[in-house]
Design brief:
- The strands form 4 sheets. The protein has a 7-stranded antiparallel beta sheet with strand order 2-11-10-5-4-3-6, with no helix packed on it.
- Helix content is 23%, strand content 25%.
- With 387 residues, it is α+β, with helices and mostly antiparallel strands.
- The longest helix has 25 residues.
- It has 10 helices and 17 strands.
- It folds into 2 domains: 259 residues, Naphthalene 1,2-dioxygenase Alpha Subunit, Chain A, domain 1 (Alpha-Beta Complex), CATH 3.90.380; 118 residues, Rieske Iron-sulfur Protein (3-layer Sandwich), CATH 2.102.10.
- It binds FE2/S2 (inorganic) cluster (FES) and fe (ii) ion.
- The site of FE2/S2 (inorganic) cluster has 9 residues, from loops.
Length: 387
Amino acid sequence: MENNSTHSNELKQVETSLPSSWYCDPSHHLLEEKQIWQKDWVYVCHGNALAKPRQYQTLTIGNQPIVVVRDDEGVLRGYYNTCRHRGSALCLTKTGRLDANALVCPYHQWSYRLKDGGLAATTSFTEPQGFNKQDYPLFPIAVREWRGAIFVNLDPKADWDEESLFQRPADGLSRFPLEEMKVGKTWSTIINCNWKLFWENFNECLHCPNIHPELSALVPLYSRRIMDKMDRPDWENHKDSNDPLYRGGLRAGAETWSKDGQAQGHVISSLSHEELDRGQLYATAWPSMFIGGYADHARIVRVMPKGATQTEITAEWLFEEETLNDPAYDMANVVDFATLVMEQDGDACEMNQLGLNAAPFKEGVLMPEEYLLKRFHDWVRDKLHSA
Ligand code: FES
Ligand SMILES: [Fe+2]
């Protein structure tokens, strides 16, 4: 008989974590901004947040200000959020809707066409000799929409490649009507940790029983400190078990990730029985986002570094339109549950960051269940070495 452990997910040998200085050192962080954040596709928001013409969303990737706006023809446009006159930011709020079909600088009011970023007008009485408006368009950036999710890329040479965009493939979400879903709630917080700690924490469940008692009760497998039934060497002993403790999925009687486990009659009808049995489906697009799919909603979480030791987390909850239109549907049931879990994770990431400052601590070590951290670390190392 074959050794079961050859078929399990775990790490088989000692792997070191990333150097602790990579989580604290501002100069190393600048390298990651350059090699990762300014080269990869970065999630902005769901298209429904920019559903109407002239709606915009601003974002700072590293220290690079950008704005994404829907023009009057309905096309999404991305520009650096900077005026060609003397460099003022153009849009000052996170989200908003322009009054006119133009981006007008709030400083001296140069105005730019939405559709091509061209400078339409200055406010000077005359223009100097040799000044041509066509020499001063907004700086464009690449924008792509994938199933309702808007991404930008600061690298002008970047290719769009769905295969490499998602490390945990997105095909598991193919039956979720992501592009038609509506943003019911947006929530944002700042965590005092390096952005990589967010992803490390996201990629393991060793912490689940003590950090997430409520979630571990909803997803019994998590109480065994694993994320997948194949994460233990003896998993085949239970491979035919229908107990959620071994097969995964939600506790008996629960339908979705919510406070009481109930989907309130709004299970997404396109989902298969098998998908509903799984309890949760994920797609991850490092470095900036993951999508979680649940029986009655989806949640997109955006990760954005604010320097070496701060990270902004933004969650959008997506629902089918008829769910949002049902006055009896209590959105807080799912929103409050996930917010609790995200706050618990945020606290865990902050305590991780605090300890990393200890001078003798040079790097950590991974345990077998942390195989996805190894994958993430290799991804980071690879990006930094491909200078
Ligand atoms: S900086 Fe924008 S108009 Fe002067
Ligand atoms: Fe967690």
